[in-house]
Every structure is written in structure tokens, then in C-alpha cells.
Amino acid sequence: MTNKAFLAAERGTVRKDWAGKIRIALTYPNHYHVGMSNLGFHAIYRLLNDYQDVVCERVFLPEETGTIHGGVRSTESQRPLDNFDIIAFSISFENDYPNLLTLLTEAGIPRWSSERSPPQPLVIAGGVTAFLNPEPIAPFVDSFLIGEAEPILEVFLDVYRKHSEKNDLLKALAVNVPGVYVPELYDATYNPDGTLAEFRPEPGAPEKVQRVAAEELSAWDTCSTILTPHTTFSDTYLVEAARGCPHGCRFCAAGFVYRPPRFRAKDALQSSINRGALGSHRVGLMAAAVTDVPYVEELCQEALDKGLELSFSSLRADRLTPELLSILRQSGLKTVSIAPDTGSERLRRVINKGITEQDVLQAVDLLVDVGIPNLKLYFMVGLPTETMSDVEAIVVFCKQIKHRFLKASRTKKRIGQISVSLNSFIPKPFTPFQWVPLEDLKILKTKIKHVKDGLRRVANVRVHADVPRWAYIQALLSRGDRRVAELLSAAHENNGNWPKTLKASVINPDFYVYRERSMDEILPWDFIDHGINKAFLIEEYEKALREETSPPCDVGRCKVCGVCK
Predict the structure, then answer these.
(1) The pairing of beta strand 309-312 with beta strand 528-529
(2) Around Cβ 559, how many Cβ atoms within 10 Å?
(3) pLDDT confidence of residue 63
(4) In percent, how much of the chain has pLDDT > 70?
(5) Does the first or last residue of the chain, that is N or C, have fewer Cβ atoms within 10 Å of its Cβ?
(6) 342 Cβ neighbours under 8 A, 6+ residues apart
(7) CATH of region 217-479+531-545
(8) Which residue intervals of 177-284 are DSSP H helices?
(9) Cβ distance 42 to 225 under 8 Å?
């Protein structure tokens, strides 16, 4: 069935009369198959439609844009985007920012918040990018929901119902709803050198916007709402097993902004898996590291006994067991993904990865022994303190893994495929590496070429690398202030031609991408309070430079980072 035909078959998923309802377009700024692969998108869709006075429909980036004015329509009823009261963007990746402008333009809605007024829709945004740094798209968005939506939505809707004027509504949201950030209520001023001088709220607006987190995950059911073959996971019923990560890898934003790490209760997970079994034969458990879930083996065995196939979003090499891998093999899993992230032990100490070379090699032995034939490895280049010796260590380590793979596979009389995914490190807000610059593109290209050349003739090993110039754009959008909105707008006008946009810009993008920040500089995202002490992040960065590691989160007992009071 074509995507167009499938969308037509899906219309009517929400069967509510629009009369007297708050009409919300839940909008993912990418194509259907990408948005419907996002579990958070499913969860918000269901939560909003649980309200009797709300009708929520999905909107995605059209496969072909620029066809007709107002051509962006909802999946369920095919209503134009500008017919809704609220357009709620769920944005997981900075590289989707340009699509936000495309969707508004295709719908005939002004892109700048200052140019919109009722009856034009209120434009709000959430998702992990809002947790990190919403400033590059702040001039396009009326308000952001900073934090996990489950505790925010009810209070947000209560305030929305009481105000019809946009200005009054936005002020009331900023004052009365924890986690709401209204950009127009904050004034940014700059020093002569371009750094932020002050980020000042208007009277009544909070000086710091407190990130909101769900204390008890089991109070909400975070799982697939609609099953479809047209997604990355293809008819897999997704279940969130945990939120956050205890390991504290210093490059990973999710390990910091989702603190403290939380696990869904065993009985809640069992209930979700049983419900998923009613509509699908395949269940996917989602978490930053599923193997950290204390009762995961027992849950998986129960699911296998029910005839279900299982998949995991991620695995840690140091937490694999023969029993767990045997269960996964029996459920049809043919590829396991592991992220050593670096080739050298030294650099793994720098990033606080917490796994060793031996952990990975033992995992390879286990995979082959239980009959899982394929392995995917994730590495990065451009990490802080990295040298060409560290890059060469990726090549050497992959050859070691291949040798171990081959040796262990001989008894099975077959060898699978090893895929190496190589990505450029991008410094992210709220991590210990938030002050460091992106490495120069020429150096990143050299490092990627070195790995590719080193593994080119190694049989059964395939290397896939990202494109550094796109890493540059992501770094710009990850670390920029609200002046970067002008660059986004210009790129939109240039039909996504970033080289042309950057060449013509009076704004120097290198200022955001290649400049190392000082520890006392006001950062564009400093107005967000995740509960993490900045002194803790500085100490973690200094420990990285000393090649010292830190222990995983000891939730409720450790007070070091500041999140657990």
C-alpha cells in the first residue's frame, strides 16, 4: 500500500465533533514515517485526545512541498493546518528546525511569532530540543513547553481555556504554568564581542524556567497509540521501559536533562506488553539503556512465552548476559547495536563511557555463541582531547572485534556483518562538554577518511559515516542564540541552500560553532533550570581533561549533581 493510500485509510482515527473543542494539530516537522517512529509523539497524541474538550490530529511534513497554498493538512480529517487553534510542534532534532518554517509557510501562516494574531493558531513547541536550547527558533514560536509533557499539559490547558487574547494568554502561561517559556517576555542584550550580556525577563515572568519532570513514570502509559508498517519499527508496539540514563557519559545530553533516571514499574510494563500483544506480534522496549532495567530478563522471558518477538532500542556491552541474548535470538533478533563510542581506553575515560575493550570483546563472543550474526558499532570522531592515535585506535579496535567475531564464528560455520557507524561529535547544552567547540570540518573529514581507509579492505566490515558539513549546521542550531533565527529564515528563503545562506550572512556562524566558551559566559540556554549545578558540569569537564571517571547515578542517595535534593 502506498503511503498516500495508507494515510487515507487512517483518517477518522480521532472521531470527535469539532464544535466547541480545542483543536490541536500535533505536528512533527518531518515526514510521516519519521514522526510515527517517535514514541513521545504517540504518547502526547493519546494524552491530548483523552481530554473531552480537545480534538488532536496529526500533521507531518508533506512528501512534496510547494504544491498548493495551504497544502498542509491533518492525517485524520484532512483539515488545513491553519484551521486549528493550536499548532503543537514536537521537535526531537535540531536539523528539523528548517521544516518548522516549511510547514508554517506551506500552511500560509506567518513564520514570525510577532506577525501572528488571532484567529491564526497559537504555535507552541516541545520535545528534547526545547529542553536543551530553544533560542534558535524562539522568534518563530509563541511558547515552549520545557520538560516532560505529562505533568504540564493539564495545567497548560486549564490556563488556555481561560484566556482568549493572545498576549494575556502568553503572560498567564508564563506565570502560572511550570515549564512554559514565552520568548517575547525575555529581552536578550549582547556585549560588543557578541556574547550575551543579559537575558532579562519582563516583570512577572520567571527569571529561570524550571524544567518539569514526571516523578512516577508508571502514572502514565507511554506506548504506541497507532500501529503502522510505514515506520522505522514497522508494526512494532513500542513501550517505554525507562527514562533517563544513570551512566553520565559526558557527551550525552539525555543523560543529564532527563535526570534522575527512572524505571517504569514491573507490573506497569507487564500490562503494557500484554496490551501490545493484542494488536501486534512484536514489542519494542525503549530506554537509553534497556539492559539497566532491573527485571528486563524476566519480562522478556514472559513475552517470549506469549509468542512475542522482542527488540531493544539500545544495549550496553557490559550488561549483556547469555540468558538475555538467548531470549532476543529466539525472538528473531539478528543484529545487536553496541556503542563503544571511541577506540581507545584513554578516550573512554575522558567521556566517562564506563565500558572497556574487554567488555565489548566479551559481548562479541556472547553474540556469536547464542547465534546472533550481525553487529552494529557506533563511534565518534572529534571528541575533546582526541588525537590521531585515538582515531587509529578505532581502526585497530574494529579489526580486533572482527578477528574475535571470525574466531567465534568458525564453529557456527558462518560469519555475519559488522557495520560501523561513524559520527562527528557535536557539543550539546547541559553537558560537561557544552563549552567546547566543534572540531574543524577539515580535521573531521581527515579523521573519517582515516577510519574508512583503514577498514576498507576488511571483509564483512562496512563503514557508514555522517557528513561533517551537516554536523556544522547541527552545532550551529544546537548552540546558537536567538539571532540564529535570522540564519534559519534566510536558509528557508534560499530553499535550504545553507552554503549560499552562510556565505551571504552578516552573522558569523563560526562564532557559535568553533568558539570555545569561557566558564563564566552567559550561555543562551542558561535560563533553563534542570536542577543540575553548573559547578558539577565544570567539575566533570575538568575530570575529563584529567582522564578521570565518575560513578553512575545513585538515585536518591547521591547529591553531587544537584537534581536529587
Answers:
(1) unpaired
(2) 11
(3) 79
(4) 95
(5) C
(6) 348, 350, 351, 353, 379, 380, 383, 386, 390, 393, 394
(7) 3.80.30.20
(8) 254-257, 266-277
(9) yes
Q: Are 417 and 374 in contact (CB under 8 A)?
A: yes
Residue entry with cell 557527551: 251
Burial (CB < 10 A; 0-12, 13-18, 19+), residue 473, is: buried
- Burial zone of 481 (CB within 10 Å; 0-12 exposed, 13-18 middle, 19+ buried): buried
C-alpha cell at 14: 480521532
**CA 49 to chain centroid:** 24
Rounded Cα–Cα distance for residues 62 and 82 (Å): 15
CA 188 to centroid of chain Cα atoms: 27
| Phi, psi (rounded to 5 degrees) for 376 | -115, 130
| Grid coordinates given for 18 | 469539532
Backbone region of residue 137 per phi and psi (left: phi > 0; alpha: psi in -120 to 50; beta: other values): alpha
CA distance 409 to 364: 10
Q: How many Å is the maximal CA-CA distance in the chain?
A: 72
Q: Are 112 and 139 in contact (CB under 8 A)?
A: yes
- The answer to which of 43-57, 297-311, 478-492, 514-528 has the lowest mean pLDDT is 297-311
- CA terminus-to-terminus distance, the chain: 53
For residue 197, the one-letter residue type is A
Residue at grid coordinates 559547578? 535
With b meaning 16 or more CB within 10 Å and e meaning fewer, what string describes 75-98?
Answer: bbbebbbbbbbbbbbbbbbbbbbb
Q: What share of the chain is helix, strand, coil (3-state, %, to 5)?
A: 40, 15, 45
* Other CB atoms within 10 Å distance of the CB of residue 554: 12
Distance CA 534, CA 416 (A): 45
- 480, 512 Cβ separation under 8 angstroms: yes
The ranges assigned to domains in the chain are: 3-10+19-147+149-210, 217-479+531-545
pLDDT for the residue 13: 62
CB hemisphere CA count around 223 (13 angstroms): 26
Helix axes 357-370, 388-409, angle to 10 degrees: 30
Instruction: Give CA–CA dist 487/493, Å, rounded.
Output: 10
Q: Residue 98: which residues within 8 A CB-CB, separation 6 or more?
A: 488, 491, 492, 496
Is the Cβ–Cβ distance between 199 and 522 less than 8 Å?
yes
- The CA distance from 542 to 14, in Å, is 52
Instruction: Mention every residue, 6+ apart, whose C-beta is less than 8 A from residue 449.
Output: none
- C-alpha to C-alpha distances, 541 to 187, 252, 381, nearest whole angstrom: 30, 13, 18
Structure confidence by residue, pLDDT tens digits, 385-434:
999 999 999 999 999 999 988 877 776 667 789 999 999 999 999 999 99
Cell numbers standing for residue 526:
542558561
| pTM greater than the 0.90 cutoff | yes
d(CA 188, CA 507): 16
Phi/psi of residue 220, nearest 5 degrees? -125, 150
